[in-house]
Design goal:
Length: about 475
Amino acid sequence: MTKDIVIIGGGLGGLECGYILSKHGMKVTVLEAASTLGGCLQTFKRKGLTFDTGFHYVGGLGEGECLHPFFNYFGLTGLPWKKLDPDCFEKIVFSDASYCLASGYKAFEDRLCAYFPAEREGIRKMVSCYKEVSSHISDNLYPGKENPANELLARGAGDFLNAISSNRRLRDVLCGSALKMELSGTLPLYVFCEVNGSFIQSSWRLEGGGARIAEALAASIRGMGGEVRTGARVTSVIEDAGTATGVTLAGGETIPARTVISDIHPASLLALIPECRQVRRSFRSRISSLENTFGMFTANLVLKEGALPYENRNVFVHADGADLMHPDPRKTESVMISYYPSGSDRARAIDLLSPMAWELVEGFGGKPGQRGDGYQELKEKKLNECIALASKAIPALRDAIDYAYTSTPLTYLSYTGAPCGSAYGIRKDWHAPMTTMLSPRTPLENLYMTGQNLYLHGILGTTMTSVFTCSQILGSENLAEEILKK
Ligand SMILES: Cc1cc2nc3c(=O)[nH]c(=O)nc-3n(C[C@H](O)[C@H](O)[C@H](O)COP(=O)(O)OP(=O)(O)OC[C@H]3O[C@@H](n4cnc5c(N)ncnc54)[C@H](O)[C@@H]3O)c2cc1C
């Protein structure tokens, strides 16, 4: 039977598109290659504890804030979200001082002004930029609507930070949590503001981990008559006279469809499309040559019972001399410490995340668990560096660790198919925003793209991208209206 919609990839983007289109009465099938749904939302269990592989916290989930109407529409606001401490939702730690960031634009600004009284003007400019992007965040969902914040797509985040203050420490604090994106010379100011602005509105952890988001969306899709399959790797898109007419799975099964949506990396999608006149070589080589953001090393740490207090915030620790505006993922210069929600004032588990260059791991082949001693040594070395850096914030950390599980960009490649294990997909570039932020449309009729690689990354960004993709398919302005006015 021909499906209305077949979606390649059961990450957040694929599942959200599946939800929207099911709600619009279409027969949807989501096909996920991995044995578990969710892509970067996947969790795993060790020693009775649930660990996240990617996602750790979201921003803007409070009522009236930017993510709330979307998650309300998707039926996700009822999940067990835990709000981070509004008085200090993020702590930025250097060797000689640490800085607590407060939630809410006014409190955030006041707190920074208290730390840097001579820098009021620059701080005010930064905060008004955050506000500008958040208040217009949904404008791009309305075709033809003017979004004044879009001019920030063609401005560099680094240049802006340099322009608002010559105080290096203030700039380092402002970009102290920028592991949530890749702050390099190419990052558009818009992306810097979209990500940071939402977390400043309010920040939340999810008890039970990101898989809960994927499971809830999948249950809703099934409840509306759709199908969500795991272990279903798409090996080709079927093309007929320039139109996508379905997909083929590993094993040979074909699934005819009126519309195909891809939630996978655009370069990986092109590898699934047979040679045809409509998909020109120049298009293929342009997409394949786009660069990807760095990948992450993650250490999931099981702690000894009662050894450390629980902290209701994320902590970002930076090495002396680290250039936060041009991070070098070949070194361990920065680490994010994320605590798992705990029912008591003691922590049970924490994660350490640190950027890791693909070139450090690409030489190791094999499957997870079979990559040899050299790979184990590399992971051990990176783990030790992360613990040493994190110990600046938690001096008792090393002795508190019962067990550590580690993953690298190679692990992400294995479990999500992200090229080079990239954490946030295609690197957006303010010098060429239109080339690095792709349209959901493809050269094939009825084949669309979605997901973090396209427009914006992160939970908020991927969600905006899903709505954007579905608006193109549904061909109406009403979708944004339907979501925002709910
Ligand atoms: C380490 C890390 C930490 C992060 N932390 C946060 C955070 O704290 N907060 C936040 O907001 N965001 C965070 N993010 C980003 C956020 O998780 C992602 O932007 C978002 O989940 C991406 O969703 P997606 O659907 O675009 O892609 P993905 O999650 O990559 O989903 C793509 C899916 O497609 C599947 N697939 C691939 N090829 C095929 C095929 N041929 N056939 C079928 N299926 C296929 C993959 O298995 C995968 O499940 C983090 C990301 C990483 C990597």
